[in-house]
Structures are given as structure tokens and as C-alpha cells.
Amino acid sequence: MNSEKYNGMPLELKIEANEHGDYIWSVTFSSSDFKKETRLGYSASGSLSAFSNGEHDFLIKVRDEDREVWTEMPLDHRDDIRNGIISLLSGATACLNPVN
Fold it and tell me: Three-class SS of residue 17?
């Protein structure tokens, strides 16, 4: 079963300022399910200052291939997905705050 029903963007990363002067990050991407049988959508967001302070317990949502509903993924599931988001955000924050 190699269904490609989730047809969202392969990767979208946004960092935007909010009305309180903080930056909010959001990432949405497509990746395989745990069994590597199908593509699913994954989404997460949070405060950039919280992330920079080491808070990496952000909520990740997953979109099932057959339903247009995002559901929360337990914090202890898919460390590979969480670590990928952490790596992506670490690279983005390094670009935003270059060391001279």
C-alpha cells in the first residue's frame, strides 16, 4: 500500500512576528508513516523564544491520508519527526542570528 493521498506541500517553514513582539514558527511537511507505507502530513508550531530556550516539547499534529482532520500526536511518538523539526528550526534560527 503506497498511497499518495496526502498531497500537501513537501515542506513549508514560516517564522512571523506576532503582535507581542515575539516570533512564531510553524512548519508543515509530508513524510512517511511509521511503517513507511504511506505519506502523511505533519504540522507543528510554537514560540521561537521558547524554542531557543530549549523548550522542544511542542505539539505535533498529523493528518491521516483519508481524512482532512489534523490530530494530536503523543509526545513520545515519532522521535524522528520531532528531531527533524528541531534540526530544521535550529538551522533556521542560526540563519536569523548569525555569529560574526
Answer: strand
Q: How far apart are CA 72 and CA 75, in angstroms?
A: 9
What's this model's pTM, rounded to 2 decimal places? 0.81
pLDDT(86) > 80: yes
At residue 34, φ and ψ (nearest 5 deg) are -60, -35
The per-residue pLDDT for range 45-65, each reduced to its tens digit, is 999 989 989 999 999 999 977
Estimate the share of the chain in helix, then strand, then coil, as percent rounded to the nearest 5: 25, 35, 45
Find where cell 502530513 sits. Answer: 41
State how beta strands 39-47 and 23-32 pair: antiparallel
The number of helix segments (H) and strand segments (E) in the chain equals: 2, 5
Cell readout for 23 is: 516570533
